[in-house]
Amino acid sequence: MSASAGQVRPPSTGLRGRNYARKYWPFVVPAGLVVFAVIVFPWLFTLYMSVHEWEVGGSFTYVGLANYMRLPGDERFLWSVVRTLYFTFLSVIFPVGLGIAAAVCFHRNFPLRGLARTIFILPMMATPVAIALVWTMMFHPQAGVLNYLLTSVGLPPSLWTYSSASVIPALVLVETWQWTPLVMLIVLGGLAALPTDPFEAARIDGASAWDTFRHLTVPLVWPHIIVATVIRTIDALKAFDLIFVISGGGPGTSSETINLYLYQTAFAFYNLGYAAAMTVVFFIIIMLISLVLFTVRQREQWQ
Amino acid sequence: MKRHRIRRGISRFFFGLSVFALVSPAILVFLWMLSLSLKNEVDNMSFTPVFIPNPPTLNNFIEVFARNDFLTYTINSVIVSFSATGLALLLGVPAGFGIAKAKAHRVAALIMIARVTPGLSYLIPLFLLFQWIGLTGTLAPLVITHLVITVPIVVWVMIGFFEGLPAELEEAALVDGATIWQAFHYIALPLARPGIVVAMILAFIFSWNNFIFGVVLAGRATRTLPVAVYNVISFEQVSWGPLAAAALLVTLPVLILTLVMQKEIVAGLTAGGVKGG
Hints:
- The complex is a heterodimer.
- By secondary structure, chain A is mostly helical.
- Chain A has a single domain (about 75-300), classed as MetI-like fold.
- Helices cover about 75% and strands about 0% of the residues of chain A.
- In chain A, strands 1-2 form a two-stranded antiparallel ribbon.
- Mean pLDDT of chain A is about 85; it is low at about 1-20.
- Chain B folds into 2 domains: about 1-35; about 60-275, MetI-like fold (Orthogonal Bundle), CATH 1.10.3720.10.
- Chain B has helices at about 1-35, 40-45, 60-65, 70-100, 105-115, 120-135, 140-165, 170-175, 180-190, 195-210, 210-215, 225-235, 240-260, 260-275.
- Mean pLDDT of chain B is about 85; it is low at about 275.
- Chain B is flat and about 75 Å long.
- Chain B is an all-alpha fold.
- The chains are: A mainly alpha, B mainly alpha.
- Chains A and B meet through α1, α3, α5, α6 and α7 of A and α1, α4, α5, α6 and α7 of B.
């Protein structure tokens, strides 16, 4: 809507040259100062903290890269990286796959579509802590409703978040439930902007629904699918609320992702210097994965 | 002709079924939350679930208010989310205007990096700073850290809206001798009102839902609602009815807001998501 209007309009640069653009900076300064104070400054200060050892009283000593050198030897950290990647992989493919299917459904016109779409996006708007609590109760092996449903259709009950083997898949289930709507919205936005002519032509040529989907819909909304994948990847890497409330990283440390271990290191062990170093490495991991995905996107566009 | 109609009927049936399959997980979880909150403890803990409360009881809700300082936490949440949203609008709407007009895409990229950074990584340095300054124990650290969420949302949504506005009106005003401030105040701002509504709703919801900043920075008296609800399970004996009631109360404002303002929310999220690339 607004974005497309901006693209259609020819660039009207008649009035403004380089100097003219400069006159707009007073509008940005107040927000810029606040962004510097609460966003940029913490980044820089984290870097500073990561090369120091911090005592509880507030004193600190310079230790160089010692905090970073500890990371490769910290088995708990390495396992948290593995778990994060495992959790992220599953938490991307399921929501993206289902989200595309949902978008195709919601792109068609049907009665009460607006209401159905609103209900569909409720999980992503709801307070994460609240839904995490409900899922915790549903996962309970004895009194939880999920095991009742499983056994009533003849399936064996599961231990869900109470066993180290099933805790991450169970968390992925909640993550998928919560975040499929975002993928749906992004892909739906792509579908809404598509031209109708190719689809008309395909219909006249007698293409099947599946062929139309594979050879027309998917290639045309591919950029949106990639964007949704990137956003989902970043959000899954950063996932905290659900895991923290539902499993707390347990049983043991079997669902402890980087973010959870980071929380423990900083605010349970008060090992602030080490936590700062971990943050920096975590940030680099996120940026690298985002960059790889963006490169994939660029290449798709060149071809 | 008849066969064609039957085939269309079948395909329509399966389409209806898939829509139902898509929507039902969302409905069922929220209905189950409602059901848990309206039942007594015996029904909640029985292995054969009682799906429809019979008779429904409001005792769980009464208990939530009786046993906890729920009212205080509600006020905390309201103060924090309203201040963080209000401040973000005050700062972010002009910033979005300036960035859109000056085509400062590098500033926009900075905001994107802010979206990528995990919330926890702001907390480690800010936690230390708030201790030094001595702000712990007040709501100020929460309002300040919530700006980390609300300011980027507002700026991001507003850049999109101001870029989409026709530039001719403003340019005409500038030619007629208006200052840039006047062009912003009298022309761009009224036109951007729908965008401001979108930015406000999204900023408010994401601030209201935020958990991680509160769990680290809030003291006993300064907890926001999500933190308060989380503390019910970690420190007190867990009974499901009051817990579900509390969870429902926390998320109810957001659910209602989503149902009422769904058009604005979908517009904002779609634009934000797509532009996020």
